[in-house]
């Protein structure tokens, strides 16, 4: 059995601010091979813990010790880039192209995160999402023993999150390297983490396994301390029931007693009574919700949506996927009536009342100086959740507000608190069609569970646009994707979406290669049969595999050439400096190696563009 290599440890660390205690005598350690997920409520100290472990923040007392030579890299929630810096300089510094291009890890990071970013663009010209991905690429391009990642999945789409999960899973050999990650993306936590740390009430509790195992063990802890945790227990039991029934594969990796899990949820009812909710939705909505009939949308000279037909049913709970810029927001605008279609028709039922939880919090800005309690008092006096009636104050409590926060001016609330208040105000307005546009922003895992609990008993039509895979699988029953301007049904959900995305990328790459040599594209003509489509897909897949095989070969050759170039430099330096003929021969051999390296790097870049097209 290999010896455990201790990389860093925290002993009795304590930190407090004038108005609250963040960490109290916390002791923990991180060993080589460990992959840690960190969860907890907003403001409980997750990011603070990462900063202390990384050496970016000193605790009031206690100490952090690090193994000699341990290289630590950290992704924080904000960057310190200058607006005039270029993407290339930020990510690879002043290294020559042949130096960084010879590193397979760097090439993989660039392909996975910056495929749509201009290598020579200035940081100031990038969007917030692109800037965030540049920061992540800069970190992952480095050579670290320990990575601390604070919300790395922010601004990543479903494909990007899947890429990052694979990168972290394969970045180091088994038993080497370590990372700790703070994120609200529960699918990601379950995919990459082997242990969890929960930060709460100034302490850190450790749990074995990923997010699903954490939920189980926390339920057991809550059951044993029911008098203290009774309100949170019900949410976690309900989420565990969904994890065991709706996605059993999630709990296959963690090491816990399955019998204990089954006993805990034996008497839990289904997460949602789909029939009852559908009947309630019909009674509130009628049979007509929103119908999109052969709808197309064009802006300037670009087709955003083409011939979309979607008849949204009463009580339908649909998730919408698609890369940034695919047309998801345009689709929502057509549903809500913000935009009229270029062609086709959008028909809305007479009783339809649509509400949108948008990505922005602008609607709260006009009430910045008013107290939470004053805003709530203007709304409904009660709200029905399933067969129970709640006051607005009780709903606020379910969404994580404390009674003392009711007197807080809205402008002084945190981003997560504003998000919860925004959600509550929408529910109190009682829409019968609810659209959630990236609703997970600023919310921790507990608040997401509370929001999902309310949605489980919400009797209306629900449409969710999100890159959060866990949320989509948890609250929606059917998924669609906006791809190439069309709305595609995904019978197998997000896995099918990722497969289609990879196949589409392969076909585009094959078409681009054929176009460069004057051959016809592989895309089938309109109206052609499924056999032709299958053939095109197969050709694209074959081309892709061939390109990937050649890239792997080039990677090996570049690694060998890098060693040969280093040796050639050493021979040149050690040679008798008065032997001009010998020096010339060494210089010529070195030049030949560098030319071969340059040729292979150019070919690697061509293949990279081919695969990303």
Task: Give a written overview of the molecule.
The protein is of the alpha/beta class and 613 residues long. The chain is built from 20 helices and 20 strands. It has helices spanning 46-54, 87-92, 97-101, 104-113, 128-140, 158-170, 186-192, 211-224, 226-246, 258-265, 274-285, 328-336, 372-377, 392-398, 415-428, 445-456, 469-475, 494-516, 530-574, 580-612; strands at 6-17, 20-31, 35-39, 61-66, 72-75, 146-150, 178-182, 195-200, 203-208, 290-299, 302-312, 317-321, 343-348, 354-357, 383-385, 388-390, 433-437, 461-465, 478-483, 486-490. The strands form 5 sheets. The chain has a 6-stranded mixed beta sheet, with helices on both faces. It has a 6-stranded mixed beta sheet with strand order 14-17-18-12-19-20, with helices on both faces. The chain has a 3-stranded antiparallel beta sheet with strand order 2-1-4, with helices on one face. Helix 9 crosses helix 16. The longest helix is centred in the C-terminal third of the chain and has 45 residues, at 530-574. It is globular. It starts with 5 loop residues before the first strand and ends with a helix. 34% of the residues are buried.
Rg calc: 27 Å
Distance from N terminus to C terminus (CA atoms, Å) equals 46 Å
Specify the number of helices. 20
With strands numbered from the N-terminus, the spatial order across the biggest sheet is 5-6-7-3-8-9
Helical content class: 40-55%
Structural category is alpha/beta
Q: Using DSSP, what is the number of strands?
A: 20
Average of per-residue pLDDT values: 80
Percent of residues in β-strands: 15-25%
Overall form: globular
Low-confidence stretches: 251-257, 276-283, 523-539
The main sheet comes to: 6 strands, mixed
């Amino acid at each position: 059995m290999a010896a455990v290599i201790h990389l860093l440890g925290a002993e009795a660390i304590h930190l407090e601010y004038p108005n609250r205690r963040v960490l109290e005598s916390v002791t923990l350690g991180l060993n080589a091979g460990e992959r840690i997920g960190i969860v907890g409520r907003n403001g409980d100290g997750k990011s603070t813990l990462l900063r202390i472990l990384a050496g970016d923040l000193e605790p009031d007392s206690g100490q952090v010790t690090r193994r000699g030579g341990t290289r630590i890299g950290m992704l924080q929630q904000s960057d310190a880039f200058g607006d005039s810096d270029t993407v290339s300089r930020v990510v690879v510094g002043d290294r020559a192209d042949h130096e960084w291009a010879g590193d397979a890890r760097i090439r993989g990071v660039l392909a996975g995160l910056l495929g749509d970013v201009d290598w020579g663009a200035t940081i100031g010209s990038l969007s917030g999402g692109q800037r965030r991905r540049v920061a992540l690429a800069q970190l992952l391009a480095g050579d670290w023993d320990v990575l601390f990642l604070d919300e790395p999945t922010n601004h990543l789409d479903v494909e990007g999150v899947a890429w990052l999960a694979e990168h972290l899973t394969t970045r180091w050999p088994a038993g080497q390297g370590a990372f700790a990650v703070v994120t609200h993306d529960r699918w990601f936590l379950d995919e990459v983490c082997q242990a969890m740390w929960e930060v709460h009430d100034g302490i850190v509790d450790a749990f074995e396994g990923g997010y699903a195992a954490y939920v189980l063990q926390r339920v057991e802890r809550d059951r044993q301390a029911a008098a203290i945790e009774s309100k949170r227990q019900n949410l976690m039991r309900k989420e565990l029931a969904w994890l065991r029934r709706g996605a059993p594969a999630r709990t296959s990796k963690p090491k816990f007693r399955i019998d204990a899990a089954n006993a805990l949820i034996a008497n839990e009812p289904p997460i949602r009574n789909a029939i009852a909710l559908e009947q309630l939705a019909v009674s509130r909505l009628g049979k007509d919700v929103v119908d999109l009939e052969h709808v197309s949308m064009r802006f300037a000279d670009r087709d955003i949506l083409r011939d979309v037909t979607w008849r949204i049913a009463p009580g339908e709970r649909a998730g919408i996927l698609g890369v940034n810029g695919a047309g998801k927001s345009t689709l929502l605008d057509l549903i809500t009536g913000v935009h009229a279609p270029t062609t086709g028709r959008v028909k809305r039922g007479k009783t339809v009342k649509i509400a949108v939880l948008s990505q922005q919090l602008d609607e709260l800005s006009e009430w910045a100086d008013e107290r939470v309690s004053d805003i709530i008092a203007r709304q409904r006096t009660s709200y029905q959740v399933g067969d129970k009636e709640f006051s607005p104050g009780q709903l606020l409590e379910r969404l994580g507000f404390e009674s003392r926060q009711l007197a807080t001016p809205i402008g002084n609330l945190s981003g997560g608190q504003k998000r919860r208040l925004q959600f509550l105000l929408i529910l109190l307005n009682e829409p019968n069609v609810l659209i959630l546009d990236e609703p997970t922003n600023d919310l921790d895992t507990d608040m997401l569970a509370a929001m999902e609990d309310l949605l489980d008993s919400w009797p209306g039509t629900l449409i969710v646009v999100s890159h959060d895979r866990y949320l989509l699988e948890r609250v929606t029953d059917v998924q669609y994707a906006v791809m190439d301007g069309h709305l595609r049904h995904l019978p197998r959900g997000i896995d099918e979406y990722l497969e289609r995305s990879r196949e589409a990328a392969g076909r585009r790459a094959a078409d681009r290669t054929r176009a460069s040599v004057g051959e016809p594209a592989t895309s089938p003509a309109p109206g052609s049969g499924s056999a032709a489509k299958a053939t095109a897909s197969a050709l694209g897949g074959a081309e892709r595999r061939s390109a990937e095989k050649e890239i792997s070969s080039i990677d090996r050759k570049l690694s060998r050439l890098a060693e040969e170039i280093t040796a050639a430099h050493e021979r040149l330096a050690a040679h008798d400096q008065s032997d001009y003929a010998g020096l010339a021969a060494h210089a010529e051999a070195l030049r030949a190696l560098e030319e071969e390296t340059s040729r292979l790097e150019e070919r690697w870049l061509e293949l990279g563009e081919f695969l990303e097209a």
